[in-house]
Design a protein that fits this description.
TIM Barrel; two-stranded parallel sheet
Length: 319
């Protein structure tokens, strides 16, 4: 594997888009504003707030979001009949849009040549809206490798300013994923982002593999919210990259308050066993840990404003 990046990795938060695919989750306008402000305070530079299946609704919701330093972005299907109109609508409130072209042969258009033709045409037509455009590829790790490379090059030639590779089913594994991302990074001089799902419990590992392969950015959600088993966790990605010397710009001390806020607004509690922000993350009970608990911790709890604690085993009394 290549060496870790030292120039930094951008974390794009997609909680206000992907998080709404979590069963039972919806955010009120006030909650969306609170979450966006908290992301801004945490140092997140970009929040994705428009989903391709609900562009009109999400754009209207985005109009009421507070604007500070944070960049707002969204997704539009390149296959949409009104792709130009949808991008133009997004351009009224967003800073950039990524056009999606699913690479599965089971999602239209089926033919690889038709996928390339439709994406490049959509990119060129959408450019009239005057907004920065990228291209995203769902099923990027289950499709033919040559198709991914060919369509990625075509998207770059058609004006895409960044590319996002989606592990749509969460079935990718870190070693093969690293090689595929590295091939794209080496062939195309654009920022490459990775979007992972946690269906096999590998979202964080796959995100790390992507950055080791040269990916410039990661899609993340607070508390790993997202479709099915969720997405790459913001707090895990931020701490993992920090621990290995890669800058993200994220303020680590903001992770716990941010996790609590999103847990409250989503009504999806944080597991006490969750890495980084879980209630048990720095709770020591094993007798072997007690003399030197620091030897059993991946990072200093003070980095996130947490406190180490010792949990004594209960005294068992005979009946």
């Amino acid at each position: 594997m290549t060496s870790p990046r030292t120039s930094g990795v951008r974390l794009k938060d997609v909680t206000l888009r992907e998080g709404l695919d979590t069963p039972g989750v919806d955010f009120s306008p006030a909650a969306r504003a609170r979450i966006l402000r908290a992301l801004d305070r945490a140092g997140i530079e970009e929040a994705e707030v428009v989903a391709p299946a609900r562009v009109a609704r999400d754009v209207e919701r985005a109009r009421s979001l507070p604007r500070r330093a944070i960049c707002l972005s969204g997704l539009v299907y390149a296959t949409a009949a009104g792709v130009e109109d949808e991008v133009a609508r997004c351009a009224e409130v967003l800073d950039r849009v990524d056009l999606l072209m699913p690479l599965s042969r089971h999602r239209p258009p089926a033919a690889p040549a038709a996928k390339i033709r439709q994406l490049t045409s959509a990119l060129r037509r959408a450019a009239r809206a005057g907004i920065e455009l990228g291209a995203g590829f769902p099923h990027a790790f289950t499709t033919d490798r040559r198709l991914l490379l060919t369509i990625a090059r075509a998207a770059a030639d058609a004006g895409a300013r960044r590319l996002t590779l989606y592990d749509t089913s969460g079935a990718a594994e870190p070693f093969a994923l690293h090689d595929r991302v590295a091939a794209i990074v080496e062939s195309i001089a654009l920022p490459i982002f990775f979007h992972g799902h946690d269906d096999l419990g590998l979202a964080t590992a796959n995100a790390w593999a992507a950055t080791r392969a040269g990916a410039s950015g990661l899609d993340v959600t607070v508390n790993g919210l997202g479709d099915r088993a969720g997405n790459v966790s913001l707090e895990q990605a931020a701490m993992l990259l920090h621990a290995h010397g890669t800058a993200t710009g994220v303020r680590l001390e903001a992770l716990r308050p941010l996790a609590r806020l999103v847990a409250r607004e989503s009504e999806i509690p944080v597991s006490p066993l969750a890495p980084i922000v879980g209630a048990y993350a720095f709770a020591h009970r094993s007798p072997a840990h007690l003399p030197r608990p620091r030897e059993f911790e991946a990072f200093d709890p003070a980095l996130i404003g947490a406190t180490r604690r010792v949990v004594r085993a209960p005294v068992r009394r005979r009946p």
